[in-house]
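Sorry to interrupt, but I need a hand with the structure work. Can you supply me with one protein entry, sequence and fold together? No commentary is needed, just the two lines. Leave the record below and I will have a look.
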Amino acid sequence: MEMKTARLTLLIDPAKKAAFEPLCARQDKTPSQVVRQLIRDDLAAHGVGHEPSGAAEPPAPSRSRR
């Protein structure tokens, strides 16, 4: 699961937005969740590998005082 996020702003036809939002609600998902899944599916379909941001970051080193 992604730990960090980045904003992706997109513009769509208002009629498509009006149709998309209730479709997402019927699936009990937010439009953002559906778009993220579409992007993951498209990346996989084109063989583009990626590692989710923040998922494999090593823990910050602890600072001990001596």
The longest helix spans residues 31-45. The chain is about 40% helix and 0% strand.
